[in-house]
Amino acid sequence: MSRWGFVGRMDELNRLLSAATGAEGRGLFFSGSAGIGKSRLLREGVAALPRDGYAVWSIAASATTAALPFGGLVQVLPAEQPQGLSPAGVLRWAVDVLQQQAAGRRIVLAIDDAHLLDQPSAALVHLVARAENATVIGTLRNGEQIPLPIRALWTDDLVDYAELSPMDPADSAGLLAAILEGPVDATSADRLGRLSAGNPLLLRELVHAASGSGELTRTYGIWKWTGRLELAPSLTDLIDTRIGQLTPGVRSVVELVALGEPLGLHLLNQAVEPDDVETAEERGLITMVRHDRRLNVRLAHPLYGEVMRRQIPVSRTRRLQARLAELLEQVGKRRRDDLLRVAVWRLDSGTAQDPAMLLDAAGQAFARYDVPLATRLARAALDAGGGFDAAEALATILMFADQPDEAIAVLDAVSADIRGDRRLSRWLTVRGMVSYWGLSRESTVEEISARGSELKDSADQARVMAFEGIMRLHRMDTAAALRLGQTVLDRPAASVAARELARCTVAYLQAAQGQLHRSGTAVSLVQAEAARWRADMPYLQLALELARGTRLALAGDLAGIDAIVADEFADLAGAGDFRLGTGYLAILQAYAARLRGQSDAALRTALEACAVLATSRVYAGLAHAERVQAAALRGDAAQAAEAMAEADRTHAPGMAVLYPWLEQARGAALAVAGDLPGAVKQLTELTDRLRVDGFAGHEAHVLHDLVRLDQAAAPIGPTCSDGGRRTVAQRLAELSERVDGVLPPLLARHARAVVAGAADELLTVADGFAALDLTVYAAEATATALRRLRQQRSPTAAVARERLAALLGRCDLVRTPALQTGAPTLTEREWQVARLAAEGVTSRAIAVRLYLSARTVENHLQRIYSKLGVTSRVELRAALRAIPGHDGGDAG
């Protein structure tokens, strides 16, 4: 683990530098809590100041020098002070010393922890700040007594004063990656960021503690935190210092809030003295947060709770939790989450005796996708005598906790209790789900179909048929899946959950077949009924997201993908460790980033999905397929091949319906490895398979991949009645009339323009792609147009080159075959010459830098201009930017 680099805070750093170097000469003081990053920010600012124009003195005040006259400035002033001077004379002498040492340069006095300055030093700082050629910058700690001369700096309008806020989530994630020297999965970064409350010092201590206890693990290069925290002594001591000594009454307040937050203020005041609550708030130990009409109490820092909960004796903890449960039961469980809170307190205090309450609470936790909590509550309900219903709930939750073997054991243990159609239908569907997806047993489909025929009740039959239908969809029995789904939808007795599960099956098929409008309507209907099905079948959300995500991906609707990735379900799934949900949404997020050309984000997010789904095979193959695509986009053949092997290894046979994505990725892996004939053959065979299966939505995208490999005029598909075969462009034109949305006609238009060699039409197509935010496709179409224009020696080539440079400027590293084909190739020496020339370096200076003769440089420039089709250095820079993988900077 490395010492962390400076991450984020760029606005604050720029403000600090502006204060130190600005024409007005105003200084700046940042205040904040301990560990918030004040000192590091000040050091970075000081380090960035040029010493030739500024005389910079850094002062670190401390408690050890606070009692000594001028002790704070001991690093600055001479060791021997003149004797016999009055206090005012000493100050004037000190100012003169600084001016002499500055030797005409502007003075910058940087004071860390200025609240610890002794009075004479503080007075000197104030006097320096009044000088015309001096600026004072510094830091202060919140809650500390500040010397009057320092406080007068901003009250006298000599400096600005600003509060340094906690790091935002993005900067916290960046700091985590810097500390661990590698990316951290989004959920872990969010949890650690919230626990540290954006405090860099606490974040580092948390990472040290988690690393030391083995709770930080690395999978596919992505760090993931288990969520378990062992507090290191240094961190505990730090928090203890902040909390300080507590009276018994205030300690009771902090303990109750630590065990029950968020705790209603009305409830807390019934358990403790209100005066103690006020004292705890005044000391900054607790804070009030309004939620709707309720005023809740929380600890001022999340880590206070971690420390307090570890310090409370077990017996006292259980007594306080039981007391909290009693208080909430007395005032009445008015809100939906009150039941869950009471159940948890009862469970933790050992006073939980009502299996019905525990089971209801488990249902609530699962409806929020809090898998660990739901597992605890359902297991407790079963242990308390909850019987069949508790076993069914526990087995269902265990399926999504990646514990299918235990889930099967729980179900088999209550098989003798199956009485009536309702229990049999629920037992069959849960066991079928665990067996099919959890244990990858494809025979499950026939088993539940046969047992389901024993049912007499129409609603119970519908439930089993809905599950059988979605299983058949996943193993590519699409005709049977559609028939079963329609049967359930046509059955009035079907429950809401069964009906909407069946609708998800139909919606997915409609999307794959290119009926995107109908699929969207079906998805909207499922969403509209969410409040009614979530209590019975919260995991139906996965079927909904699969149908919705597939439709959005095939429609090229990246904004729609952004919306569902930012939806409430994503937050709940991440917070509750609902890995199938977070993993699938990460795959979608990577897909959108890839088509935008954000290859860094695409690869990182795909790797996160692989790490999250490492213990589950449901979407693991799909995650690795997206990793293949992201690696291929970057031209990384080795990683693409490795990811393809992992996709094949982890892809479950029962997820056959996802084959288009995997086989499309296989084509990308072959292409990036340089096997273009193999890639064309792979994608051509895939289109044949998709045509047979009726997956027109997928087929359009695979055909477009062939266009991107310059195969728009290649024959494809079966022989027609006239003895010929359609070309890729012709087949895309046919599909553009069958597949919904604005994208298919654009794909077909792209293919026609490639066949015709119409550069102007290609540029128009590129505009269409860019309007959809499909930056990679837009860049490829523009690159193809640029090649045509160069071949024609058209004067509009320069305009196309500028457009390509602008598109690639929106991307990270992008190296696709369509962009690389025909791209000018320069030798390493030519790249060096081109880079310097584009920067405006003269030919003579280039010769000196590269140890070449002037004639050799001129010869290089002539060849470069010829290869790139440019006539000036301005055009040269644009041309370099328009070459994938180069930005006109370090061309070597």
TrEMBL record:
SUPFAM superfamilies: C-terminal effector domain of the bipartite response regulators, P-loop containing nucleoside triphosphate hydrolases. This is LuxR family transcriptional regulator. Signal peptide: none annotated. GO terms for molecular function: adenylate cyclase activity; ATP binding; DNA binding. It comes from Micromonospora deserti. Keywords: ATP-binding, Nucleotide-binding. InterPro entries: AAA_16, P-loop_NTPase, Sig_transdc_resp-reg_C-effctor, Tscrpt_reg_LuxR_C, WH-like_DNA-bd_sf. Residues 819-884 form the HTH luxR-type domain. The keyword Protein biosynthesis does not apply. SMART domains: HTH_LUXR (SM00421). Coiled coil: none annotated. PANTHER family: TESTICULAR SOLUBLE ADENYLYL CYCLASE, TRANSCRIPTIONAL ACTIVATOR DOMAIN. One of its GO terms (biological process) is regulation of DNA-templated transcription. The lineage of its organism: Bacteria, Bacillati, Actinomycetota, Actinomycetes, Micromonosporales.
